[in-house]
Amino acid sequence: MATNTTETTGVKTSGWQEFWSKEDWWAVWLGLGIVALAYIFYLAGSSISWIAVAPGKWSTLSQLGAQLSKNGIKYLALLAAFLVLFTIVISFIGQKPKAFIKSFIFIFILSTIIYIVGAWDQANRYNLEPPLVALLLGLIISNVIGLPRWLDAGFRVEFYIKLGIVLLGATLPFTLIIWAGPVAILQASIVSLVTFFVIFLTARKLGLDHRLAAVLGAGGAVCGVSASIAVAGAVRAKKEHPPIAISLVVLWAIVLIFVLPLVCRALGLPTGVAGAWIGTSEFADAAGLAAAQSYGNLAGHHLGIAGTADQALASYTLIKVIGRDIWIGIWSFVLALIAVTVWERNETDSKVQVGQIWWRFPKFVIGFLIASVVTTLIVHGNSLADYNKLVKPSLILPITALRTWAFTFSFLSIGLTTRFRDLASTGFKPFVAFTFGVVVNVALGYVLSVVVFGHYWSSIVTH
Amino acid sequence: MKIFNSIGLGNSGPSCQQCTYFQNDPSLIEAAYPGLTVMSSGFASVRDRDGLCSYNEIYLSARDSCPHFTPHGAETNLEEAASQ
Q: What is the ipTM of this complex?
């Protein structure tokens, strides 16, 4: 009979290895490298806009054809740049570069088509929001058509989204993070705690194991699959616990990607408010960004939705990244402590290492914050006229274009990696517990984002 | 208080990282848990160096240890000794 009796002891592996073996750090290196390069070109009186190409608005096929023939070489250069950079990353983290290269070319081609469709001036009319199109297309390809498994090498959802978030930091003023951060943390903490306890206590009431209840609760309350897998390791979950949480988070996250923007639209919420609600109630970073970006893109059109696309992304990111993601280490530490002192007190004399607060910290957030500080310092001292005339087109817009590419790769990869038949069966009780948490989370998220802090989120300034 | 006694800062001795029953290669974890890559990753910081223990059938930190700790290669040596 195996025992869970454990004692926490040392690991001799070098901590420095983290810097080149984790996607988080690579998102930081690449993201900040891109920002630095953009700044160097800006200082030299030039811009990286020649390679940070993005489709412009078009209304006829002849216009689109003219655009593509003019910028075709730029798209190839962008593909080559991404391929070189990402292949280096893939090689360092120990994946197969050959499979990645073929897969990434496939993703880039599809993303280009999605980006172009989104730039059509009638796209809004037909609800062709690029994040949702990417997700749907990916889901159809992976679940109806099917793809060879080796293509999965390029579907790195988390890496792309983390890179995009670091680049997003470069387009958000640090003053906004300082100003809105405390409210984001307060709002997110209320919802996270309530959601966790709803799921945990419901699961326990239904007779589920403490550790499974904690893994489910963290998935619903903190940052989805990442939180579930982090807490699973911290509390020494049974081998079969994480897949249950993964299935439930993925299922509900995908449902909410489509439902939350629809409800926001029906209610006519300002983009900043909608972003805050999505940030409070979506589970995974990539899923929430898809929802927030697709709703933000509706602003300023004929639908009468107030605010800007950037406000949706800003309020979403503040709530999700600053309010929820960065606390995963604390959640893991506290739950690990409870696991050894309460749940397993007769089985174990193990110690919980306080260092996991840092070890499990999502390091890409560091890149997000540094990028924000750097560009805020660069922009500081420019008049609004200078900002709009010089800084924005030469520095900010090219970074924004690259960010959109990274997000599109991620949204598409969500669809391409979601194979419903592969997801583990969850069982009725975990489904009930998690679903109850989702309902409470969405309702409480609405009350806090719209009723309590609505005035706050609708007026955030992103430039 | 027990709660403070349960918190550790430093560490020493053998850990799961060096145990033959422990596997934490990110690619293997991604293969073991289909769906992990949909909205997270085996290579994410939040996963630290966690992995699967085939002896206890649990998912845990590489920094843990247990009485069944068996260093890499020890199992083979034991089998060889038994066969001689």
A: 0.89
